[in-house]
Structures are given as C-alpha cells and as structure tokens.
Automatic annotation (TrEMBL):
The gene coding this protein: kynU
GO molecular function, one term: kynureninase activity
Signal peptide: none
Cofactor: pyridoxal 5'-phosphate
Residues binding pyridoxal 5'-phosphate: 95-96, 123-126, 166, 195, 198, 220, 250, 276
Catalytic activities: 3-hydroxy-L-kynurenine + H2O = 3-hydroxyanthranilate + L-alanine + H(+); L-kynurenine + H2O = anthranilate + L-alanine + H(+)
Entry keyword Ribosomal protein: no
Domain of life the protein comes from: Bacteria
Organism encoding this protein: Congregibacter variabilis
Alphabetical list of Gene3D superfamilies matching this protein: Aspartate Aminotransferase, domain 1, Type I PLP-dependent aspartate aminotransferase-like (Major domain)
Protein name: Kynureninase
Length: 410
C-alpha cells in the first residue's frame, strides 16, 4: 500500500462508514453501480420483519408495522437525497415499470404532442419501454426519436412531448447537464423525465430547484437496497392534479378498501402505486438508507470525485492508457462515480480481475467498468485495483482459456 492512498484514507471523513457494510475479506468491490454492497443494518431489519412482524404479527402488520405506508415513507426518505420536497416521491416497482407509467403520464399531460426524444445509447430498458408504449398507443399518439447526445438541443422542438434521459450514461459514466437540458426542454414546451439510476445516492440532485417534471431511480445500485430492491419515482407537485397513469391498480385507488367497482385515482404520487409492494425488499431498502443520515450528498460527491480522479490518474501514471482507452470524461463535473475503459479483450480482463478478487463488470461490446461507492470504497481499494489491472495487462493472463465463456448475467 502506498503512502499516498493510505494518507488519503486516513484523512477521509467518510472512511468510518465502511464499517456499516459487510464486505468479504480480501475482496475489492467496485461494482456498487450494479449491485450495492450489503449494509449491516439490512440483515437485522429483514430478520425482524420476517420472524417477528410476518411470523408472529401476521396480517395485522399491514397496520401495526405500517407496511401499507412503506412506499410513501421510503419515498419520503429518498426525497431529500434527490432534492425533492415532500409528497413527490414514491418507492415502487422497477425502473422499467415506473418509466412506463411516467412516459404515459408525460404524453397525456403534453398531448397532442407525441414525440419521446432520447439518445441513441441510453440504457436499453429505457428505450424498450418507450417502444412498448409506442406499440400500444400507435403512431398517431407516440413516436420515438433517438439522436446522438451532441444533437439533443437541436432536436428539441415543439413536437417533443417528453425528453427522456439517463443523467449518467451507464457505459461511459458521462453526465448530461441536467439544468441546461431541463431548461432547453421547457423552453420548447417539452417535459423532462430523468433516469437517475447512476446518480441517486452518489450525485447531489436538485429536482425541485431545477423544476424537473418526472424522474425514476434505482434502489439496488448506490442506495444498496439489495438485489431487485424496489425503484422510486418522482412526479413534480405542479403536475399531480392533472397527471394520470395507465397501471390503475387497486393500491393507486383513492380508497382501496372500499373495493369500489370503478377506479378513481388517489391524490398525489400515491396513484403511481399499482399493486401490493414487495415488503421484504422495501424493508431492506429502508434499512439501507440509514447510513445516508450520517453524511451529506456533498460529502459523498467530494469523495466520489476524489476516488475517480485518483483512479484515472493512476491509469495514466502506470502507463495503462497505452493499452486501454478511458471513456469517462476527465473533467470531474462531467462524470458520475464510475470509470470506464475499453479494450478489445475487456471480457477476459474483467474475469481475470474478478479471479484476483477485484470485482468489476463488463458491458458489451468492449467496456470494463470500475464503480466507486464512496460509502465503502477506499483509496486503497482504488490503488489495489490499479495494481492488479497493471499486473494482468503485463502478464496477459486475460487471454487464457478459462476466461472465454460468458454466463447469463455479465
Ligand atoms: C440499472 C438501470 C435500470 C434498471 O431498471 P430495472 O427495471 O429496475 O431493472 C434502468 N435504467 C438504467 C439507466 C439503469 O442503469
């Protein structure tokens, strides 16, 4: 371990937070942008939920342990972390399902406009969901336009109903300018729907201050809610009276327990809950959020920038950029909390790193991602990852046969 990494860790005000996570010995976990590590608070909360609340208190727990309010109460805990005032965030479903609900809302609010504008290289599910909705609504009511990121501002015109973008690109780690694009969309009367999958929990956000219309985000990435943790959605207060969404399930009804034969939407963001929430997962996410009470989003961002900067400089100073191409912007303000590189043998490299206990991930066709979660990653983690990567590139281990096969999930 070098003096520099060790002294950066010694000065790091967030270093103590690592103890709140259960990380396996000897593993360097740089994949929190895909599945956050396990917060210690989660195991106890889930055990209590399963054994006492479900096991002993059974169905009465919907009231006595307030299970019924969890989508709202977890949403309200997420709200300040994304710059949202109360009454606008709901924890529910997956990002994919929430995108469907919100794209439909956006088209409805902004009709007769029918264009959903997005970029060519967005995360596939975002585009797939828009395509599904377009198929259902038909061309007369929905058209998808995809342009390169550099052409977004010129493609924004009075046809556009909704501009849908992921703030931090999952491949490159590059950030859009949320303020500039939100303002440009509003200037032509378009609504914005931001996907915060790679931002929430790691980048400070100001949804209310920027007057964002709608947003979605992930529970299992930087919020560490566990595999398949529910996602969240945001609908700005000023749209709520008119907003409608098509998944009109009973828990989005104004009075679910009157068992009314006809649907009447609940007021506010509550109408975006379709059916019964996954309580075990939501309780895990709720417990995972505890650690955010000990830190500000600004502190998280400061450390995130320092970690990615340290890693990118290390790639350069070790001469690794002679073989790898860094895809992540060097300007700190323009990147999220990951560093991505490309290499023709990225799959083999990712597998050789994982074998050496540096957990990273691969994204087709040739990208290797190093995700930094400031709550539990250290500068020493970044340095060990660099040393391991350098040694794998030097001995060309990544070309060996055992790194050829790809499993279902990469
Ligand atoms: C991770 C991620 C998702 C995940 O969507 P789910 O429906 O929750 O599985 C969606 N969009 C982006 C940009 C992501 O990075």
């Amino acid at each position: 371990m070098s003096y520099i990494a060790a002294s950066l860790d010694a000065e790091d005000p967030l270093a103590r937070l690592r103890d709140h996570f259960q990380l396996p010995q000897g593993v360097i976990y740089l994949d929190g942008n895909s599945l956050g590590a396990l917060p210690r608070s989660v195991s106890a909360a889930v055990k209590d939920l399963v054994e006492r609340q479900w096991g002993e208190d059974l169905i009465s727990s919907w009231n006595t342990h307030d299970w019924i309010r969890l989508p709202t109460s977890v949403g309200e805990r997420i709200a300040p972390l994304i710059g949202a005032g109360p009454g606008q965030v709901l924890c529910a479903d997956s990002i994919s399902v929430n995108l469907f609900k919100l794209l439909a809302t956006g088209l409805d609010l902004n009709g007769p406009r029918r264009v959903i504008l997005t970029v060519e290289d967005d995360f596939p599910t975002d585009t797939y969901i828009a395509q599904g909705l377009a198929g259902l609504l038909g061309e007369a009511h929905c058209e998808i336009r995809r342009v390169p990121a550099s052409e977004l501002t010129s493609a924004l015109n009075e046809d556009v109903a909704v501009l849908m973008l992921t703030e931090v690109n999952y491949r490159s780690g590059e950030r859009h300018d949320m303020q500039e694009l939100t303002e440009a969309a509003h200037a032509v009367g378009a609504l914005v729907l931001w996907d915060l999958a790679h931002s929430a929990g790691v980048v400070p956000l100001e949804l209310d201050a920027l007057d964002v219309d709608m947003a979605v985000g992930c529970g299992y990435k930087y919020f560490n809610g566990g595999p398949g943790a529910p996602a969240f959605l945001y609908v700005n207060k000023r749209h709520q009276a008119k907003a409608r969404q098509p998944l009109s399930g009973w828990l989005g009804h104004r009075a679910p327990f009157t068992f009314d034969p006809d649907y009447v939407a609940a007021e506010g963001v509550q109408q975006y809950q379709a059916g019964t929430p996954a309580i075990i997962s939501m309780v895990a996410l709720n417990a995972a959020l505890n650690v955010f009470e000990q830190v500000t989003m600004e502190q998280i961002r400061t450390k995130s920038i320092a970690l990615t900067e340290f890693f990118m400089q290390g790639l350069m100073s070790r001469g690794l950029l002679q073989t790898l191409v860094c895809l992540t912007p060097s300007e700190a303000a323009r990147r999220g909390s990951q560093v991505s590189v490309s290499h023709a043998q990225s799959w083999g490299l990712s597998q050789a790193l994982i074998e050496a206990r540096v957990i990273v991930d691969f994204r087709a066709p040739d990208i290797l991602r190093f995700g930094f979660s400031p709550l539990y990653n250290s500068f020493t983690d970044a340095e060990r990852a660099l040393d391991t990567l350098a040694s794998i590139l030097a001995d060309k281990r990544y070309l060996q046969d055992r790194f050829v096969d790809r499993p279902t999930v990469t």
